[in-house]
Design brief:
The longest helix has 20 residues. Helix 3 packs antiparallel against helix 5 and helix 3 runs antiparallel to helix 8. The C terminus is likely disordered. It is globular, with a radius of gyration of 22 Å. The chain contains eight helices and eleven strands. Its EC number is 2.7.11.1. One of its GO terms (molecular function) is ATP binding. It is a single-pass membrane protein.
């Protein structure tokens, strides 16, 4: 499909990612010459009405959010493209193209990330989540592959494909588990409703993996991992992480969501407070004296 022009506007350049329902392409927005990320529904699921509704909700959600930690919305559409293979309909979502790499790739390459860099990413994602939570949006799938890190260290939250929008009709059957087992909150594993505190839990799991280079719980299959999130107590971060980060992660990993930070903004403020002692300049304890003398 490289070279295909979608909706007479977006020229596909290269495939940069794929998931359960779609592909993500680097593309050129021909009228503006800007590079965008173009997510396209796969042919075999494009006619599924529930998946179509989720894709439209993702587009509406991204369009409604305006935060530097969330990829900006560009366009959404559903077109029958005669130039496409078989002349099939194409449903697409165009967003800001972020130059960087996924946090999952960064963890895989580095194994363990420094505490300072971990706190930078956690606070950035927490503030993006806080913005979404304030708008009534629960992400439900916070994980390293959905976090992009730019060359200057900024974190960007992506993939709002299974969001829950408060006050709107659900697209999920009661008791259905939504999310990724390795980063799933206990309440999500039980099939309960995900809340902003569920996203905080998932982000804390990400933080644990950034520091240790290993998953919080590593079972043989998704079910055993989900059971661990519900029943097993997480191991404490190593002493090299420092007590402030140890305490932050431990609090956010509480089984009871009422004992965690309530939302992304609250978690971000706690992260910022935890890093301030290290950021403060060292001041002399000697009293200040003027070097000027009266004559």
């Amino acid at each position: 499909m490289a070279g295909l022009v979608v909706a007479d506007r977006f020229k596909l350049k290269r495939l940069i990612g794929f998931g359960g329902t779609g592909q993500v392409w680097e593309a050129t927005d021909l009228p503006t010459r800007r590079v965008v990320a173009l997510k396209i529904l796969r042919d075999d699921v494009a006619e599924d009405l529930v998946i179509q509704a989720r894709f439209r909700r993702e587009a509406d959600t991204v369009a409604s959010l305006d935060h530097p930690g969330i990829a900006r919305f560009v366009d959404y559409g559903h077109v029958v493209d005669p130039a496409a293979p078989g002349g099939q309909a194409i449903t697409y979502l165009a967003t800001e193209f972020i130059r960087g790499e996924s946090l999952s790739a960064l963890i895989h390459r580095s194994e363990r990330l420094p505490v300072g860099r971990t706190l930078n990413v956690l606070e950035g994602v927490a503030r993006a989540l806080g913005h979404a939570h304030a708008a009534g949006v629960v992400h439900r799938d916070v994980k390293p592959s959905n976090i992009l890190v730019t060359k200057d260290g900024a974190a960007k939250l992506t993939d709002f494909g299974i969001v829950r929008v408060l006050g709107e009709a659900t697209l999920t059957h009661v008791g259905t588990v939504m999310g990724t087992a390795r980063y799933m909150s206990p309440e999500q594993a039980r099939g309960d409703v995900a809340t902003a505190a569920s996203d905080v839990y998932a982000l804390a799991v990400v933080g644990y993996e950034m520091i240790t280079g290993t998953p919080l719980f590593a079972g043989k299959d998704p079910l055993s991992i989900a059971m661990s999130h519900m029943e097993d107590e997480p191991a404490q971060l190593p002493d090299t992480a420092g007590k402030p980060l140890q305490d932050l992660v431990a609090t956010a990993l509480q089984k009871d969501p009422r004992r965690r930070p309530a939302n992304g903004t609250e978690f971000a403020e706690q992260i910022a407070a935890a890093r301030r002692p290290a950021d403060r300049p060292i001041r002399s304890t000697r009293p200040w004296r003027s070097r000027w003398r009266r004559t």
